[in-house]
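step: validate -> pass
step: tokenize input -> pass
step: predict -> running
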Amino acid sequence: MVIWFIGLSRSGKTTLSKLLYQRLKPQMNNLILLDGDIVRTLFKNDVDHSVAGRRRNAERLSNLSKFLSDQGVHVIAAVLSIFPEWQKWNRENIKDYSEVYVKVSMDTLIKRDAQKLYAPALAGEMMNVVGVDIPFPEPKYSDLVLENNEPRENFDDLLDQILELPVIPK
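step: predict -> pass
step: emit ->
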């Protein structure tokens, strides 16, 4: 099983992936959590945030997820995933793959932007920001689309929807 969370920075994909991991880990010892930023760090930040660097990291994440899945390891991955061709590759090559798109408006992302990613990018002071100067093609074939624009104290309602995905063992 590979659950692939897609969404812009600050959409909630990392939060949801961590919550799903915490929920499933007690019954699935062979479960790991991958995050695009963590994988980038594991590889010594050898790729930048340009489109080319992001493409290489996307390829790395897809191949790593397939490798782990082929070994019987279940994967929850939180990634920007801006390359439709890699989403397609995942669907065609990873057994028991599901895609969850965490959809959030730009207004909401800016409000959540404690690390000041979007405001400088929108002002032209920062480059290589997905959703601003790097396009974010919305995924077309996600198994689940979660609207996450509302302030939340908990994510139980969204987590319940994720747990209904057919690839998650009941």
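step: describe -> Residues 110 and 118 are 6 Å apart (CA to CA).
step: cleanup -> pass
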